[in-house]
Amino acid sequence: MGNQLHVRQFRYATDNLGYLVYGDRAGMAIDGGAVSDILDFAAAGKIKIRYVVNTHMHPDHTMGSRSLARHAGAEHIDNASLRSQAQVELDGVDIQVHHTPGHTRDSLVFHWAGYLITGDTLFNGTVGNCFTGDLKAFYESISHLLSFPDETIIYAGHDYVVDAMRFARSIEPENADIGRYLEKYDPRHVFSSLADEKKVNPYLRFNTAELVAVLKKRGLATDTAYQRWNSLMKIG
Ligand SMILES: [Fe+2]
After folding, report:
1. Judging by DSSP bridges, how do beta strands 122-123 and 126-127 pair with one another?
2. Residue 67 has pLDDT above 80, yes or no
3. How does DSSP assign 142-211, residue by residue?
4. Is 102 part of a structural domain of the chain?
5. CATH code of the domain containing 71
6. Nearest partner of 160 among 121, 205, 125, judged by Cα
7. Does 21 score more than 70 pLDDT?
8. Is the confidence at residue 71, as pLDDT, over 50?
9. How many CA atoms lie within 13 A of 207 on its CB side?
10. What is the Å distance from ligand 1's center to 120 Cα?
11. 235: pLDDT confidence band, cut at 50, 70 and 90?
12. CA of 58 to the centre of ligand 1 (A)
């Protein structure tokens, strides 16, 4: 059996979330803006930070990465290299790198044994802005994330949970799962499962009867899954 990897979440700036993924000995920082917190945590746990990577190149995600890599003596792997190598090995576990364009062209998610680190592609409760304007690519990226097992834990690039649930409620006022989702929310450790997301995140619910009814009421196209996605992106 392979080793197990753990995740530690680090909040920085206003609502950014970065991560240290680590095993018994080695770690990889993803969006390492919380430089000193990450270094302190790694030192306390005798974790050698081997890699520093980014979910995408927006400055609030890349800030601190060079400094962290330098202080830790780690390799900073750029997104083009991550895409071509498609995985990163850490303490005997392969972390899979998936290209998920939409928010940006270079957006990546990191996946291994039950965990997904999603950057600004998928948030807890919502999705990222489609800054590329390529809604089709974003749809394909989100559809790909929907294909992961329901129990997959989602760790995102920002904490937008409260605003996201306010929007979700405006779309589906009758959805009782939104209240349950907010009860579980803890800003000190922000995560959800893909199953939770499928219950409340409007942008993952474009194939549900509830969302189709909402879109129809607004006179928006609902014939195909892609049309429903497009319609939903219009009202967000
Ligand atoms: Fe971003």
Report:
1. antiparallel
2. yes
3. HHHHHTS-TTPEEEESB--HHHHHHHHHHH-TT-THHHHHHHH--TTS--EEHHHHHHH-GGG-TTSHHH
4. yes
5. 3.60.15.10
6. 125
7. yes
8. yes
9. 9
10. 5
11. confident
12. 5
Express each pLDDT in 161-194 by its tens digit: 999 999 999 999 999 999 999 999 999 999 999 9
The full length of the chain comes to 236
* 235 within a domain of the structure (yes/no): no
* pTM > 0.85: yes
- Residue 225 falls within a domain, yes or no? no
Rounded Cα distance between 213 and 232, Å, is 12
Residue 1 has pLDDT above 70, yes or no: no
Q: Calculate how far, in angstroms, residue 104's C-alpha sits from the geometric centre of ligand 1.
A: 7
Q: How far is the CA of 198 from the centre of ligand 1 (A)?
A: 22
Report the SS3 class of residue 87: strand
CA of 103 to the centre of ligand 1 (A): 7
Query: 33: CA distance to ligand 1 center in Å?
Result: 13
How many domains are there within the chain?
A: 1
37 part of a folded domain: yes
Q: Can you give the residue range of the structural domain that contains 76?
A: 6-205
